[in-house]
Specification:
Chain lengths: ~260, ~350, ~290
């Protein structure tokens, strides 16, 4: 299909005098893993909030599968297949891992105005939930309360919950945030296994992960996308190198990656 | 509190928890109270515990939205008061043989008055909820409190129904000669029956898919939106249901007290119902029942010792909030896996 | 409806408004900076009135009575903060509401034990008896004018404190970033106690001035509390400017509402005002960043 799955045109967002998103345009092809990188303060978090429907844009359009979704609320976008995961883990801490995913499954299935049947023991919810947990590698942690899961496992749970809503597009907001090398590798492998099945917009700082996963990369600086292309093209792009020169660590990763 | 395990073994093989024992004992004690009280020559206790049962019903309905839903509603007494007034006003018109709004005949039939009390309270809850549930936190508390005050002043202004002084109940609700609520013991068992029936209903509701949405919204509202739940409509339904049940409690209260007055819906009464839920243990349905017992019995006992019992009760409440926040029933360990 | 009546009611509305501002300033600061809902704020107002009434009877000097009440409740407030309330900063609002609800019960009952259930009479100070004719043909009580003046003076003083002094800067900083202020070597706990004490003292001042106008009795704080909560919700929690404007709005609406509307509805005026504002601006009129 030629039509991009997600088409962002001229998105703007101001906070007083600060322009967080500056006439940003972006296309996502169906099935690709598209990474979004940029120095701190580039406006990545703001963009995710706008795409997820949490933050209203001042102007611009967001089209998903050809339909204008700019004014839709987060639940409405999820129903269409646009789902985000959170940079700061946002799960249901008092529930078990299974209960967390089961809620997402329930959201997808609908029928939530049921008042009689016990949802805790409903196999229609528990079975799919277990499958998603297995898929992310938490199969044996299903009955653990979330508070007992390690930080890395909670990040895996985040992804399981997003998957359980049966998304077409995953907006992954720094899935590797705060992860060490080993835990991070688990997540990278997991995301790699999803390639082709779900389109992904991956916001990340970890350059190793970005360059190993991404089909295309866009670079965000001061709220605009200054370059979009394959990982190799981006690596060689002089504008991008200039943008990163202030951030020595990243520049180093760039040249060495 | 929540476990999503499918049953891992036949229930009989798992040892009943402390909580289950507590519920069983409570049920037996409640069923046996009237004959026991009469045998001991203290029929007063039947009236006292009847009152507790009525408030236990109101507290249980509040637990649905507060304990399971996380909504701190300071207007719950308003729904109770409206239910009470429906019964009172209908009985008044029935006895005077005048027409309500010039249209409707009064009645003392419980078959009509009680469902109507629930309907009116429920509709009010729907309206209040529609406006209030858009707000969060302290704003939600304030706006529900504001509505409660408005209702209070509205009923104070109804001169025709006693205004500030209230209205005596012209006649207790009748149920086609099936039961006479004038008899203390009959009323007691009706109240107990209603409490148990509603308790079972709420138990199913809180464990259902609907209940899961409520609890998820309490735990992490933002995440619920991002997995696809438009939380507002579920909360509105829960709020309406809780209001309707509180209206039923109000109908019972009117009969128990033989009286309705605006004081029943003052914001401090809403505060007292919240205290009952917390004292007993919120988010458990049984906790609020325990809380209603503790609160009203404590009030009874303390005011027997000193007229300044609130000087003792205030600090006690403070201590409970600091040290025993999960409430009395909440102190009991639950089933393993929770 | 004469111009004189309108003028008189406007002054009455301002008088109620400035008194509500004294209450609201403390409550909104405490809420905005320490994230604490303190329902017992009305009790501090009541105790201020009681202290002032008692001291006035003992000394015959209104100024001494006012000063004594101010200092007394300031001390009591700080003690309350240190002993009880500071452990609630990290707790959720429901816990704070319940705990301070318990405090209301306690203080009301203690007042009843110490001063009895009957209202205590507090006369107008001699120097402030009589009327002033600002508008020809419409004499207005001098005392009420003075209370308006005091309220306005406090508003100006607070504004200067918050925006021009180092202490005020710390207060504003503490509201937005507590950890940072601590890292700068400021003892944040002392700041909190001071802020709470200030709020309590302002409530006592309001109570002192209300003493001769209303009856000093148990439970007088409860109705004022509700009005104050309405003010800070309308004004926006944490904003002094919002508290000022909202207090005047509420004072004027309530006064004119009672004059113009039938009895049942007039009671509801301020709640309808609040509901309308919350519907349009769910966070209140102003944000905490003043």
């Amino acid at each position: 299909m030629d039509r991009p799955l997600l088409k962002v045109t001229g998105l703007m967002k101001r906070f007083g005098a600060l322009v967080a998103t500056d006439n940003l345009s972006l296309d996502l092809k169906d099935g690709e893993i598209h990474a979004l990188i940029g120095p701190n303060g580039a406006g990545k978090s703001t963009l995710v909030a706008q795409l997820a429907g949490e933050l209203r844009s001042d102007s611009g359009r967001v089209e998903f599968e050809g339909a204008d979704v700019t004014a839709l609320t987060p639940p409405e976008r999820v129903a269409l297949g646009m789902v985000r995961s959170f940079q700061i883990t946002s799960v249901f801490r008092e529930f078990t891992a299974l209960a967390n995913v089961a809620l997402a499954v329930q959201a997808r299935q609908g029928h939530s105005f049921r008042f009689w049947r016990n949802a805790r023991t409903d196999p229609a919810l528990a079975e799919p939930a277990r499958r998603y947990l297995e898929q992310v590698g938490l199969g044996d942690r299903a009955d653990w309360p979330t508070a007992r899961l390690s930080y890395g496992e909670q990040r895996q749970l985040e992804i399981a919950m997003a998957l359980a809503t049966n998304p077409k597009l995953l907006l992954l907001d720094e899935p590797l945030a705060g992860m060490g090398r080993e835990d991070g590798a688990v997540i990278v492998e997991l995301l790699s296994s999803l390639r082709g099945k779900h389109t992904m917009l991956l916001i990340e700082h970890d350059m190793d992960a970005v360059f190993s996963l991404a089909d295309r990369i866009s670079v965000l600086v001061y709220g605009r996308a200054i370059a979009t292309g394959t990982p190799d093209a981006i690596r060689r792009d002089p504008d991008v190198q200039r943008a990163y020169l202030g951030e020595e660590a990243h520049a180093g990763e760039f040249f060495n990656a | 509190m929540t476990d999503m395990t499918t049953m891992t073994g036949p229930p009989a093989l798992r040892a009943p928890s402390a909580r289950l024992w507590a519920v069983a004992l409570l049920a037996i004690a409640l069923l046996a109270l009237p004959p026991a009280a009469k045998a001991l020559g203290e029929p007063f206790y039947i009236s006292l515990v009847s009152r507790v049962l009525v408030f236990a019903l109101a507290a249980m309905s509040l637990d649905l939205i507060l304990g399971y839903g996380g909504l701190v509603c300071f207007g719950h007494a308003m729904f109770m008061g409206v239910g009470a007034y429906v019964v009172g006003i209908l009985a008044h018109h029935g006895a005077e043989e005048t027409l309500l709004f010039g249209l409707l005949p009064g009645t003392d039939s419980g078959w009509i008055a009680w469902p109507l009390a629930m309907l009116c309270a429920g509709l009010l809850a729907l309206a209040v909820g529609y406006v209030s549930l858009r707000t969060k936190g302290i704003y939600f508390i304030m706006i529900t409190l504001a509505f409660a005050q408005m209702a209070y002043f509205f009923f104070v202004s109804l001169r025709a129904y006693g205004g500030d002084d209230g209205l005596s109940l012209a006649a207790r609700s009748t149920f086609s000669d099936l039961v006479s609520l004038r008899d203390k013991t009959s009323f007691y068992y009706v109240a107990l029956g209603v409490l148990i029936a509603v308790g079972l209903l709420l138990w199913r509701v809180t464990n259902s898919r609907f209940g899961m949405v409520l609890q998820g919204a309490k735990a992490n509202e933002r995440r619920m939106a991002h997995i696809g739940f438009p939380v507002f409509r579920y909360r509105l339904v829960a709020f309406t249901l809780a209001g309707a049940i509180a209206g039923l409690a109000g109908a019972l209260l009117a009969n128990q007290a033989n009286f309705v007055s605006p004081a029943m819906m003052h914001w401090t009464r809403s505060g007292e119902i919240i205290v009952m839920v917390i004292l007993g243990g919120m988010g458990s349905l049984v906790g609020p029942v325990v809380g209603a017992f503790v609160f009203l019995l404590l009030e009874e006992v303390l005011s027997g010792w000193t007229e300044h019992w609130q000087a003792v009760f205030g600090p006690m409440l403070l201590l409970v909030v600091i040290y025993a926040r999960q409430g009395l029933y909440g102190l009991l360990p639950a089933r393993e896996g929770k | 409806m004469s111009a004189m009546l309108i003028a008189e009611q406007t002054l009455n509305g301002l008088q109620l408004g400035t008194m509500l501002f004294l209450m609201a300033a403390g409550l909104t600061l405490v809420f905005g900076i320490m994230n604490l809902i303190n329902l017992a704020h009305g009790s501090l107002y009541m105790l201020g009135a009681y202290f002032a009434a008692t001291l006035f009877r003992l000394t015959g000097s209104f100024l001494l009575a006012g000063a004594g009440a101010f200092v007394g409740v300031l001390a009591l407030g700080m003690l309350l903060e240190l002993a009880v309330l500071r452990r609630f900063y990290a707790r959720d609002h429901l816990d704070q509401v319940l705990a301070t609800f318990g405090l209301i019960l306690f203080f009301n009952e203690m007042a009843r034990i110490v001063w009895g259930p009957q209202a205590v009479f507090m006369p107008l100070p001699e120097a402030l008896e009589g009327t002033v004719t600002l508008i020809p043909g419409a004499p207005y009580p001098l005392y009420r004018l003075v209370t308006i003046g005091v309220g306005m003076a406090v508003a100006v003083a607070l504004y200067l404190l918050i925006s021009r002094t180092r202490a005020g800067m710390l207060i504003r900083a503490g509201a937005s970033n507590r950890t940072m202020v601590e890292a700068l070597g400021v003892n944040i706990r002392v700041l909190y106690t001071a802020v709470f004490g200030l709020g309590a003292a302002l409530a006592a001042l309001a109570g002192t001035m209300a003493g001769p106008l209303l009856s000093v009795q148990v439970g007088m704080g409860d109705s004022v509390l509700i009005l104050t909560l309405v003010v800070i919700v309308i004004g926006g929690i944490g904003s002094i400017r919002g508290a000022f404007i909202a207090a005047l709005m509420v004072g004027l609406s309530d006064t004119f509402g009672r004059m113009l509307l039938p009895a049942a509805v007039s009671e509801m005026t301020i709640y309808i005002l609040m509901a309308a504002i919350l519907y349009w601006r769910p966070q209140g009129l102003f944000s905490a960043h003043d």
